[in-house]
Amino acid sequence: MKKSVLxxxxxxxxxxxxxxKSQADWTRSNGPWSSTVMDILANxxxxxxxxxxxxxxxxxxxxxxxxxxxxxxxxxxxxxxGVSGTSLFAGTTTVYGGIGGxxxxxxxxxxxxxxxxSGLTNSSVNSIAVSGSNLFAGTxxxxxxxxxxxxxNNGDNWTRVSDGLPLDHVLALVINGTSIFxxxxxxxxxxxxxxxxxxxxxxxxxxxxxxxxxxxxGNDIFAGTxxxxxxxxxxxxTWSQVNSGxxxxxxxxxGVSGTNLFAGTxxxxxxxxxNGTSWAHVxSGLTNKYIFSLEASGSELFAGTWGSxxxxxxxxxxxxxxxxxxxxxxxxxSFAIDDEHFFVGTGxxxxxxxxxSGANWDNVGLINEFxxxxxxxxxxxxxxxxxxxxxxxxxxxxxxxxxxxVSATAGITVPLIWSMAVIxxxxxxxxxxxxxxxxxxxxxxxGNSWTAGGIIQGAPLIASFAYxxxxxxxxxxxxxxxxxxxxxxxxxxxxxxxxxxxxxALWINGNDLFxxxxxxxxxxxxxGNxxxxxxxxxxxxxxxxxxxxxTNLFAGAGSSNVEPGxxxxxxxLASNWNSVxxxxxxxxxxxxxxxxxxxxxxxxxxxLWQRPLSEMIGxxxxxxxxxxxxxxxxxxxxTPTVxxxxxxxxxxxxxVTxxxxxxxxxxxxxxxxxxxxxxxxxxxxxxxxxxxxxxPTPPR
Length: 700
What we know:
Blueprint: E1 27-28, E2 37-43, E3 46-51, E4 55-59, E5 67-69, E6 78-84, E7 87-92, E8 103-106, E9 114-115, E10 125-131, E11 134-139, E12 148-151, E13 159-160, E14 170-176, E15 179-184, E16 189-192, E17 200-201, E18 211-217, E19 220-225, E20 228-232, E21 240-241, E22 251-257, E23 260-265, E24 268-272, E25 280-281, E26 291-297, E27 300-305, E28 310-313, E29 321-322, E30 332-337, E31 342-346, E32 351-354, E33 362-363, E34 371-378, E35 384-390, E36 395-398, E37 406-407, E38 417-425, E39 428-435, E40 440-443, E41 451-452, E42 462-467, E43 472-476, E44 480-484, E45 492-493, E46 503-509, E47 512-517, E48 520-524, E49 532-533, E50 543-549, E51 552-557, E52 567-570, E53 578-579, E54 589-595, E55 598-603, E56 608-612, H1 613-617, E57 641-643, E58 675-676
Antiparallel strand pairs: 1-56, 2-3, 3-4, 4-5, 6-7, 7-8, 8-9, 10-11, 11-12, 12-13, 14-15, 15-16, 16-17, 18-19, 19-20, 20-21, 22-23, 23-24, 24-25, 26-27, 27-28, 28-29, 30-31, 30-57, 31-32, 32-33, 34-35, 34-58, 35-36, 36-37, 38-39, 39-40, 40-41, 42-43, 43-44, 44-45, 46-47, 47-48, 48-49, 50-51, ...
């Protein structure tokens, strides 16, 4: 009997048709979720927003509405913006396997973009600064080829100007007169007074050397760190800590408006009018308090959040209103479903609920949380417990259909939860949670307490689960697939034939076990003892999610500037694949769910999409048969299904960005399945920019 418990999301790419039946495109399922905004730039009356996964957005009405400017972008994961004369520049971040987009340039106010990265030896650009005709870019470091780059010809060519800089990520740049300051991820602040020709450390007084933000106000230089704000009044020669009144010391952004200085933190926005001597919390109306960018325009201030778009204030932060209409990107990481409730977990925006099969959505809590996995567990009495696994705060449970959530983390020693699954155990349902750094945890009492499973050697992150009558399987980054015959008390590696052991997703259909890796799909017909490649027709190698409908298997792939990503369908147990992705404008998939005969896919930065199964499979819509669903005698009439979500940018990320199986509402009494939907990079390293609570950053 098939018993898969993980669903993973992938990116959508190349277009293909499986049948001669007329096919419609995928359509976006618009919810109240919004984009993660890494940078905001005011240029005259226009506002530009850099987002993770949605490219650049433009507002010409002071933030009331936004339109996407993605024509020409091959990498929509934008970290930074800059303007020089009539040219607009966008710095993108490195994604899968070290593939980055570099710097893009627009000379028509963002309508079209072209790559302008000649000479850049590192294409992950964190910051851009302009001084006259000089354009500076701060990048990641990789094999010693990162640091600061200079262009004197409007981005046509770049030269590395990093003499004296450490091998460290340059996260922030600010120019004050002839002084250029560079903030690094672990080495503090560096100063150049010769256009980047040479750099010297200026860290006297800095007690935290992770510099996420820099700002200049008159002759004063401010540095935002993981230890609060520091002020220098002597061009960086000395620094003093100015944190009085700050309730969060993780500073992600700084903004200057006249004599006011604003700090964006993980607890909202703070204002100082006395150079940091005292700070006031000015966050009324901010429903998402992870502030990653700040920009002043006239009398108004704009704040970009992780997962909820842009907020605006016209009274120095006393009152904020959401100003994100049109920013429908959203980082969709996980699903959980029963007959009446369809939950979506997002990266940074919390949990959303639809009771009408995805037509309308409401935010139902855990705002600010990175909900990378979800699960639905029937209690045997007609009720359902919904679980949300977060990156930083462990597990939350709701027994009232999302109206309230309570922490359910007793016994979990590592609160970075990447994947979840509900697995039958006789007449009861046990819950399994895969962590980043702590292995597997399981609960036999509805999440009231958790027990650590057996040690899984060399597996830093547990990305997904699957099970059959004999075994429970886990997928790990870097160490492949593991199998347990004693419900998680001990695990053994089963990787014979798997040539890429970064495994993101597992799925079981009948007697076949499938593994989605960063090297494509592998299939096993003997419970994982041996594996063979099953990639015929796949044009993308990074597989993050699976789901099936009867014998039709869907795979979700990740996209990059060399791979299309997208949704693929196989009708012959992965011997051959065809792309079924028309209409998807974001093909970076992270999770799947089936609800009301529609296939839903969540993307990294591109929101939620849906398409009727009948358009892809042909004929009348079949009854979907998600993960294994043995129905214990106590199974209630409610039919929960859990769809996992997908990982570090380094992002990170990388927004991150793990895969159980959803149970359609049309299925009478299926057993719930849990699906992690996190999406790892080729090398699961933490994102260089300081990120929210989960210190290991969500993957890109």
